[in-house]
User: What shape does this take?
Amino acid sequence: MRDRPIRQHRDSGWYEVRIEGHLDSRWAAWFDALSLTKESDGTTVFRTQVADQAALYGLLQKVRDIGLPLLSVAQVEAGKPGPTTKPQS
Amino acid sequence: MLGLLLETKFQVPRRRPGLATRARLIERLSRGADSTLTLVSAPAGFGKTTLLTEWLAIVSANGWSAAWLSLEKRDNDSALFWAYFVTALKRASSGVGAAALSLLQSAQPPIEALLATLLNDLHAVPNDVVLVLDDYHVIDAPDVQEGIAYLVEHLPPQVHLVIASRADPVLPLARLRARGELFEIRAADLRFTADEAEAYLNGSMGLELTGRDVAALEDRTEGWIVALQLAALSMQGREDVAAFIAGFAGDDRYIVDYLAEEVLQRQPEDVQHFLFRTSILDRLSGPLCDAVTGQDNGKLRLAALERANLFLVPLDDRRHWYRYHQLFADVLQARLVEERGDELPGLHRRASIWYEQNGEAFDAIRHALAGEDFERAADLIELAVPDIRRNRQEALLRGWLKVLPYDVVRVRPVLGVGLVGALVVCGDVEGVEARLRDVERWLDPPTGVGKEIQGRATEMVVADDEEFRRLPATIEVYRAALALGRGDGPGTVSHAQRALDLAPEDDHVGRAAASGLLGLAYWGRGQLEAAHRGYDECMAGLHRAGHLADTLGCAIALADIRLAQGRLTDAMDTYEQALRGASGRRGSVVRGESDMYVGMSGVCRERGDQQEAIRLLAHSQELGPLGGLPQNLYRWRVAMARILEGEGDLAGALDLLAEAERLYVGDYFPNVRPVPALRARIQVAQGRLGEALGWVRERGLSVDDDLSYLREFEHITLARVLLARYAKEGSAPSLQEAIRLLGRLLRAADDGGRTGSVIEILVLQALADQTRGDIPASLASLRRAVALSEPEGYVRIFADEGAPMVSLLRAAVNQRIAPGYLRRLMTFMNNAEVTAPVSGGLIEPLSKRELDVLQLLGTDLDGPDIARALVVSLNTVRTHTRHIYAKLGVNDRRGAVRQGKELDLFSRDSDR
Assistant: This one.
């Protein structure tokens, strides 16, 4: 039950997801992302905030279910341009 | 639980027309089909389901039994998953899964035992069986995954599991691969080759494309089948196919987006609206679509969409239920969320209302939660609580309540207590008392009853007035259950008592629960009369509420209590009355009837009517698995083991006890006759003293333990082990310890009114005193045992003691103790010896060494000669001889030889 405010854990916060192919910006709401960026290398990047690890895996399942190859997932600091750690690709 | 299984999930999906066959893959599958596990692992839209549908038709034609199970997110409940899994297998192969389904009826189904019985059944299946688990990626419950892993490790070779999944399952795949037990079809295998793309586009779809066009499409889609299907759909009836292909090939957008857009744009606007709005539904039917869209042509539209191949999959033969292909649904939903997000709550609300009106509470709740209409969801959940409790689906309830905001739950006392119930049943009791106190603030001082949704947030909300009225008692019932779980007997009693004081007269289930908890608390403490009263009231309440199977569960407890009290006649009456109360209804079997016959069989056995006991067990079995409560699986085996024991088939009895131990389900009953103790008794009878002593150590039993009813059976067994040790090793301390323990046990059993135990203890005391030569004391104990057992017609409790008992009975007859009854006992024992010559008449068989000595006693050799022949001392020969006399119940060498011949001990190999 959500009887406590969500505490900031290491496993919650902002994540940046990169997938192969160009995904239309209309998918932003589907992934609960503020915006989708189509990159010139043929990939798409979006950022989203997750409550915990379970929410992150739920998001990754949504990515899996549309059938586009997943390139990287990385935790990022809100408002910072790049991933906090180098993405594993 | 089983009533809730959805038929559509077992149906092999219908093949959509116009799909190419996959000869290449079918051939591969057929070659790999012998593996235990076939994994078809690839993202959505790669044709996994279609391929398996095609393959299954072929293997079915080849004589394999085939089963299908389409999984959904909600199947992550262990009991529900296995109910579907076992049912699917049972449909494919009728001899499979009956016992497993019966185990699923218990409060916390023992999954390990379930898998064991299932594997047992599967090993006996004569032909090949294949089960396809489709959409396995939705399964993330660790206990389900572990169960599947265990099953895969142990499946017999003729059983094949096929898993279709978008993600590799959590299984030791590398190990299975290395052992050649895994066959895989993956995305790379599933992609259409250039030839297959050509055959599909120009053959099945009749598009007449050039080689270059086909190559361009194949290149752009990379053989992704759903994309090729969408492309074909976009091109049908189109004039400028070449231009379409050029545009498509030159675009780098997400391919499904692009093509779905193409497909959608070619639909009239009203069809597009229909598709978007219904994309929120997991399943679609005409009336449901009408409810969600506010139109009235849903059925026609669905039929038209299916004809147009618009990714609509029929779920049944009658074209009643459909679902969208998931990729297509995702595209539609993503656009719905983006472009008409404000419509979402209304759509979900209408779906929720439709499901509610059609009696599908769970789907109504799901849509209310998806539309974030938490008030509505809370109302629906509250009203569903009694059903959830009856069907034992508390895990589901917990999942929902995690999603509900606390503010919504806090003001709903009935819902709050429903959650407590779910937590208690799931064994998650921390913080439960605090929640109960929170709820009680709404009750005290009592506030007005009624629905006050529109009020301020601090006002109480009640959807189920009936349950609200019962809440004070319900709260106390849960407190009693919590106390029982803590082992707090007095606490259980006081809360259950208070629940009875508070419960309205018409709350039959609540009153029954409280009375049952009282019964359990008293039973566990050995207060048998009070326990009996509790169960009696529980049974009456359940009867009034119409819960017939549960009344039979009570009858088991009531009869168990009577047996402990040594009241065989009353126990028999309990079974018979319960049967009369349950039968006469539609002639169908009531769950629990089998249990009654097993109980009656036990009484008949005890009274020496072996044939009737066997007949009743057979009858119990004839009623089938649906006739038995979860406990019956193990109780039947224990009863049969005791019958085999009486016939001298000790090895057979042990096999049954091993099964019984695996299938043991307590269902909260105190385990007053543990199976391992029964096994130790048989080991004693087999002369396997070391193993019996091992059990004593394992259980940490000692003669100085505090005595309690819960361990009484184990302690009596300990006394038996000690007596056997004395008989075998001649160790005097064992005899003294046994006598001391028996004395303490007798006092405790007398105090508790447990006459059943008293009789057995007296019998053992008589034998112990006989062993040490104190015949007067021995006969005194026997006299009292006989006085208690004669009116109830006990036979076995004496007869099972064999030859030493015969000589004791003879002495007793000479003393004119109940001569009629004792002669009957002796006649029974003589006859039993005829049918069970080997060990049936012996409390304990002769050891190998004793048999050697006995052989020589049958010759003309004297003591010193025998000692020399066996290379032992004369003293050792004398010890052996004394034991032989004791075991055979004789006083001299001639008697031993005569008895030995009667028992067929001379003709047997001396290596037994």
Observations:
- The beta strands of chain A are 13-20, 33-38, 43-50, 70-76.
